[in-house]
From TrEMBL:
This is SRPBCC family protein. It comes from the Bacteria. Residues 23-159, 190-323 form the Activator of Hsp90 ATPase homologue 1/2-like C-terminal domain. Belongs to the AHA1 family. InterPro entries: ASHA1/2-like_C, START-like_dom_sf. Pfam families: AHSA1. SUPFAM superfamilies: Bet v1-like.
Length: 326
């Protein structure tokens, strides 16, 4: 992972994050100063960022917000104080309202981004300066250490490019914490088609089948927020197994980039999961990122032990074939 150290210093009133990358300083600079690239990593998993305003000039301002799986938005703003391309820049970082105005009573940070070359590529040192120990502790209590670490650890795939990042990889499953798992798979195909393939029953029936020997016997989908869905599968031929299914509803929909749904095993009293689907396109290929929130670690481990990753890989490989014929 890129992040190598996160340190808080109550005497110096600083929070320092250090990360190393296998990319030159100029490439790192580009990722931090292009809002479209910033949006691909700045928000931690489950809270993707958007930068509707980005005036990268001394005295200019950027406004961003991060959206939770339930649709809650958290706003922030940067005032650019100093810019020294490509070595770094300094911002005044505020918690903000929907208009980008600073929130009263919330900490204000002076944040210095520094980029320097290393033998293997480049290093980012991000130092946040606080006005008081209480302000520093307040930000730490908000989860800034964990959130910043998870956000910056997503930057590798942006710097490398999606095809290089995913080269030789099939479906990847990462355990993020006790209740969160992230699944990624690069699909050859544009984002609009990949989105449709997750929303339209006539396409879902062709690829969301898991291992060979199963068919989707029920596929009912209302992709609107609050809409319900129901899937059922049954074995065919000599395949062993029993009919099963899932049901749930759409919590958030931001076509064609994000859909959040609940998922419950039909006919059981098992607790539901929250599935946060994000799509990201680059050069005709789309990265699928599925963040799954489980109710507890035990449920997480039971599901992972079923061979879920292998079944998803079979489905995603089939999806590429379906998209080629659309």
């Amino acid at each position: 992972m890129p992040v190598t150290d996160v340190t808080t210093d109550a005497e110096a009133l600083t929070l320092t994050l250090t990360a190393d990358f296998a990319a030159p300083v100029e490439r790192l600079w580009e990722a931090f100063t292009d809002p479209q690239q910033l949006e691909r990593f700045w928000g931690p998993p489950g809270w993707p960022a958007r930068f509707p305003e980005f005036d990268f000039t001394p005295g200019g301002r950027a406004v961003y917000y991060m959206t939770s799986p339930q649709g809650e938005k958290s706003y922030g703003s940067w005032e650019f104080l100093e810019i020294d391309a490509p070595r770094g820049f300094t911002v005044l970082d505020n918690f903000a309202n929907a208009d980008g105005a600073p929130l009263d009573g919330m900490p204000v940070m002076r944040v210095v981004f520094t980029f320097e070359p290393t033998a293997a590529g480049s290093r980012m040192v991000n130092v946040s300066h606080f006005a008081s120990a209480d302000a520093l502790q307040q930000v730490v209590d908000f989860g800034a250490v964990e959130g910043s670490t998870m956000a910056i650890n997503q930057l590798d795939r942006v710097l490398a490019g999606l095809r290089e990042y995913a080269a030789g990889k099939a479906t990847q499953t990462e355990i993020l914490d006790d209740t969160h798992v992230r699944i990624t798979r690069l699909i050859e195909g544009p984002i609009d088609l990949v989105w449709r393939a997750h929303q339209e029953p006539e396409l879902l029936e062709k690829w969301m089948l898991g291992p060979d020997g199963w068919r989707m016997s029920v596929c009912e989908v209302d992709p609107a927020v609050g809409g319900k869905y129901r899937y059922e599968w049954e074995p065919i031929g000599d395949t062993e197994g029993e009919r099963f299914g899932f049901d749930g509803e759409t919590v958030l929909s931001e076509a064609p980039r994000r859909a959040v749904t609940t998922e419950h095993m039909t006919g059981t009293d098992y607790p539901s999961t929250l599935n946060d689907l994000n799509l990201e396109e680059e050069d005709g290929a789309t990265l699928i990122t599925l963040l799954i929130e489980y109710p507890d670690m035990q449920t997480r481990d039971i599901v992972l032990a079923t061979g879920m990753t292998d079944g998803m890989e079979a489905s995603y490989a089939r999806l590429e074939g379906v998209l080629a014929g659309v």
